[in-house]
């Protein structure tokens, strides 16, 4: 049975696409590729960082490659995965990623329970267990998060809340405060006891994701507990974006944000077509767009870089959001 990993991923920061293609280029099904990324990508946060108090999980499965290959090559198993994902009531990326992980944990006979709501009364919800798992004979509680954060550096000294979600509704600081102070203590609440067959041996958060920086001269965020291996890309405002005229591109739908992209070359965009698609999008929508840069190989376009393209006023709004959070904390 798979066991939690003691060491962080060996993938070097900034090389997530290269590492992924080396290991998983033989996979074609988008759900299987997304699951491969969730299970094999570097941790977003450093499990050894003091501020996480030992509450960040890291995971490795020595048999993952064989298991994923068998999954993709067995039509009945692949259909089971597609049916499992098809039952989702929402298109939210976080729920999609969580559902993929639930399928994996269930198939690997680790899953005790998933998405268990804890209520003190009918109208008083205390919280929810993402996963109750059986690991090394113990009952453990894992919260699971897949996050995409853009670094806004206008605030001087680097703070966790400088890593903001693309739509500015979330930040690394706020998310981790909620996980550590609220979600991971759920098993200690009296109302949770009816859902637990035995005491929870440990409660940790498994956090995957991508970090996006405004330029190549990166500040060092690692004092904030970010993994040195965390997957990363860039972000640019629409007016500052300069596309490589010789490259191929793909605007990534939200469900394809997890794993590095692999598409038939016929679906790739030229730089001119990508620029036109971005201009049309921002003419009627302020939501940031995730753009993948591709290289051609054997009839496919393989992602070699990715970045968020944001409205021209995004940095100004991000700074205001950060200041508002600092004011609330003060």
From TrEMBL:
Taxonomy, superkingdom: Bacteria
InterPro entries to which the protein is assigned, alphabetical: DUF1853
A Pfam family reported for this protein in Swiss-Prot or TrEMBL: DUF1853
Protein name stated in the entry: DUF1853 family protein
Originating organism: Collimonas rhizosphaerae
